[in-house]
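Ligand-bound model needed. copper (II) ion.
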Amino acid sequence: MTDKTPHYDLLIRGGTVIDGTKAPRFDADVGIVDGRIAAIGKLTGHTADRTLDATGRIVAPGFIDSHTHDDQAVLSQAQMPFKVSQGVTTVVAGNCGISAAPLRVDMDLPMPLSLLDTPAEGRFTTFAAYLDALRATPSSVNVAAMVGHSTLRAVVMSDLDRPANEVEIAAMQALVEEAMQAGAIGLSTGTFYPPAVKATTEEIIEVGRPLTSRKALYVTHMRDESDHVMESLEETFHIGRALDIPVVVSHHKVQNAQNFGKTKVTLPFIKEAMQHQCIGLDCYPYTAGSTMIRTDRGMMDGRVLIASSVPHPECAGRDLKDIAAEWGVSGEEAAVRLQPGSAIYFMMDEDDVQRVLAFEDTMIGSDGIPLGEKPHPRLWGTFPRVLGHYSRDVGLFPLETAVWKMTGLTARNFGLHERGTLKPGHHADVVIFNAATVRDTANYETPTQPAEGIDAVIVNGAVTWQHGVHSGARNGQVIVRREAA
Ligand code: ZN
Ligand code: CU
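Prediction:
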């Protein structure tokens, strides 16, 4: 009686769906048409141009990397193998106060702005120009981008070593307004970093005024994640309340030995504040962080591994201590000689990392820095490490929760509409993986290795990664804040 058997572009058969809402898994086929999910259920007898067999596999929403520094990489390394190979289909860029736009063509980029590896010839002087470039030459992943406060300071201020004056605040505010109109999803700050250390709370609130009417996000690498982490949380929540907007605490951690265990205080404090305002947080699943090479005491406390160095590229992958010994200088002196560059700092406690990961509202974000040959392994390993190591092997939370922390929760917190959960009508960002074997293989010695157990990755309906091979598809979209769509 049916003359029209449903037909799909792509049909994923025989898998077990974890839909990204934290609901229990169920067996279902998934049909995709025109880049959208058309049907989920028993689709026996339905036909398709292409069929993927997912028998014995999990079919989940493509992972959303809530915290990236991929602003420039989505253009210069457009296939994004380090993310796609993990099952990531969407990246949130513009974190820690650093964004690829807007910039001036004639300016020098102070650290850590230079971590984005922005070439002086392809700079974007407006946020709209950046998003247009991404539309013209799409990446393999979807991109939602924020504008960075440190970037704005570097554009507007002649001297970063003081608070902004009224004129400079007005100029930054105008740039935030331009970014909002172009479709930025929020503003990020990194008051931990030299270009923004001197920014006051009031400066950030004033610069962020254009966020309020849009309910856009305020996302922050806080001023202090060490001895003064509680004051930093208070400052963050205060800014959120003053602007009446949602906030996200980036890569929540407590660092340095004297603060180990403090997440027993920070997490209940965050939970309590969540009763009164909209708060999100993310975390990467490692006890080491990575950032620009620094020389301040707190950063030099533990083991320091050099990830990249402009003057000494041969030192990538080596311990700072060994380099210093070889050169016959102090660790600090060696660090100065290695600048500019990036390093890996071992300064967190495993119990704290697990406590933050397991906290109900924590999203997964890699904070990967797509630069050099010896990056922090989080760039290639974050998502499979949470699925394999922390969910399956350590048993920190069920797989449904792990998936939710990298999909549905993140889409909700960042306002990424029709993504993050598998539902008819939603964009067809999908990952197919083996729950029994998925694991990260990237480690500190060999950090640039693809994960195991990720069978296929589909971005807006296009098969982008399958059995360890990139298809070449670059079907990513620019995700703009909804009203700007
Ligand atoms: Zn950061
Ligand atoms: Cu970051």
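The chain is about 30% helix and 20% strand.
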